[in-house]
Specification:
277 residues, alpha+beta, Beta-lactamase, five-stranded antiparallel β-sheet, 11 helices, 49% helix
């Protein structure tokens, strides 16, 4: 009996000691709860989205865009050389108006006006070649003089040297073609009257699949260009508050809709990125 009571007492003492030891043992620090970063992450910035779109293009692309009101710019391969396709028709119009038009007779001026209208509005190639022929007969250096006037170092129009070097007779860069259309828009090169004529034609072109596609209820002045494997567009988006210049060039092995869709999409991104909110 006494032995049993003694054993029970020893068990009770052992339990008390074990409990005290557990209470006094340092407790492990609980692991910190990791925040849900995906839930609080802000959406990517518009500049980043545009940059990734340009980097992911299947081919070669270049972009120069500028808010003409604020001076803010964005460029990607803006100094890379591309075929002009039909965007060089703007330069031909400048050469005619700057170096042939003033001294022309009234009937000749009327013909120039009509050919330039057809060349810009519907991108008529016969009208382009008629004007090019006039330049070569009457003022062979007119195109070169336009490029020199605007301080363009990479652009070449109807040039044998360009063909030998690049495989195309007319080449430019996104930045230099932007300089050309900005001079038209700002009326700094031709003056108010002739610039107004050219701006009206650029604003009524029949091609609206690239820069203008996603521009709802805003004015777009632009000139597209297309050759096999080449798609480009240069223009001005005027929404009444901001004036956004966009100059986009591409070369790719993909079918035409791919590059056309690409230019339309990056134009919308560039516009949204640069316009004032």
């Amino acid at each position: 009996m006494l032995r049993s009571m003694f054993l029970l007492l020893l068990i009770l003492i052992s339990l008390c000691v074990a409990a005290c030891g557990t209470v006094n043992t340092p407790q492990l620090k609980p692991e910190a709860v990791q925040p849900d970063t995906n839930a609080s992450k802000p959406p990517p910035d518009l500049g980043g989205q545009l940059q990734r779109s340009l980097e992911n293009f299947d081919g070669k692309t270049g972009l120069y865009t500028k808010n003409l009101k604020t001076g803010t710019t964005f460029g990607f391969n803006q100094d890379a050389v591309f075929p002009t396709a039909s965007t060089h028709k703007i330069v031909v119009a400048l050469a005619i108006y700057k170096y042939l038009y003033t001294d022309a007779a009234a009937e000749e001026k009327k013909r120039y006006d009509n050919n330039i209208n057809q060349m810009i509005v519907i991108s008529d190639n016969p009208a382009f070649y008629r004007l090019l022929d006039d330049i070569e007969r009457k003022k062979p250096d007119a195109l070169t003089r336009v490029l020199t006037d605007l301080k363009l170092v990479h652009t070449r129009i109807h040039s044998r040297d360009a063909f030998a070097k690049y495989g195309y007779h007319s080449v430019t860069t996104p930045y230099e073609m932007a300089v050309i259309i900005e001079a038209v828009y700002n009326e700094t090169y031709l003056g108010k009257e002739l610039s107004a004529i050219l701006k009206e034609e650029l604003g009524t072109t029949i091609f609206n699949e690239e820069i203008p596609r996603h521009m709802q209820k805003v004015k777009v002045l632009h000139k597209v260009g297309e050759l096999p494997g080449v798609q480009c567009d240069v223009g001005i988006v005027d929404d009444g508050r901001d004036v956004i210049l966009i100059s986009a060039y591409t070369t790719t092995r993909r079918a035409v809709p791919y590059a056309s869709n690409f230019i339309a999409n990056i134009s919308a991104k560039a516009y949204n990125m640069l316009r004032t909110k």
